[in-house]
């Protein structure tokens, strides 16, 4: 167990991580670790859209969900005062580190712990792509950086893997749906969507991957939400498209019954790790040094070795090379990664 950074700390904490889905999911392993090793309990302040990922966690006693409009301007300052008053005797665990969460910290009545963001190192690495800076950043992933808010040293990655607790009813839903795709047939989930276009694998590559897996007896199921479904006309044979048909909990239940998940650098990537599904992650404009690589024992990251990577933190910057970093990830290589379980590495 890593030592706590300071003595005399409370056992109850308000955690702040307002966005995005992946960031919230990545906090779950730390909270379970602190609950298990130190007996800490948490209230979790986040946006309502991400709350389902936290349901059923033993460490999270209450979800604190702001009202619409409460996160802006004078309304947020009022909400900060109310939160501080309602959580008298609590510590504040700030995993967000923005002006908004710092305003809450300034009004907090108890101890405030804040996770290091390594913002300067990230910016310098993004500008220079210096190998030493990349190696420095890769020493810790995001859950470990979260842990450094409370601990003198970060626990191993495997101790902080994200976790999603599914109910028996949810697991039964996932089993029934996946079994309906083909009795005893291996199933690979595909998550082809991303907030930023630069992180999307080309549509034709997804078609090719589904066809390659189908040729060796696998079924594929598309999950996620997007205004333009991947297979808008007709999915390849053996592929079931559930785009926009499932919520976060249902998606987790389906992933838990799949043999693999192929996805870009996305929130559902971490959902896959959290339910124990092997993840094949496709990284283009983003890199492992940012700390978001999946951390399961059989998870793998595929990426193209291009000197222009990384080009941004979240993949939102326009690309002058037509997203070559994603186009150069070959469907055959992805299919092999799905079919060939890599050796465990923690």
What layout of secondary structure does this protein have?
Blueprint: E1 12-16, H1 21-38, E2 41-45, E3 60-64, H2 73-86, E4 91-94, H3 99-106, E5 112-114, H4 119-128, H5 131-138, H6 142-147, H7 168-180, E6 187-191, H8 203-215, E7 219-222, E8 239-241, H9 248-256, E9 260-264, H10 267-274, E10 279-283, E11 300-303, H11 324-327, H12 331-339
Helix pairs in contact: 1-10, 4-5, 7-9, 8-12, 9-10
In short:
By secondary structure, the protein is of the alpha/beta class. It has twelve helices and eleven strands.
Order of helices and strands: EHEEHEHEHHHHEHEEHEHEEHH
Name given to the CATH homologous superfamily of the largest domain:
Glycogen Phosphorylase B
Indicate the radius of gyration in whole angstroms: 20 Å
How many domain units? 2
**What is the CATH fold-level name of the largest domain?**
Rossmann fold
- Quick one: overall form? globular
Query: CATH first level of the largest domain: which class?
Result: Alpha Beta
Into which percentage range does the β-strand content fall? 5-15%
The assigned CATH architecture of the largest domain is 3-Layer(aba) Sandwich
Give the strand tally: 11
Query: Spans with pLDDT under 50 lasting ≥5 residues?
Result: none
Class from secondary-structure proportions: alpha/beta
Mean pLDDT rating: 93
Q: What level of helicity do the residues show? A: 25-40%
Q: Walk across the major sheet and give the strand order.
A: 8-7-6-9-10-11
First-residue to last-residue Cα separation: 17 Å
Give the number of helices. Answer: 12
**How would a crystallographer describe the biggest sheet?**
6 strands, parallel
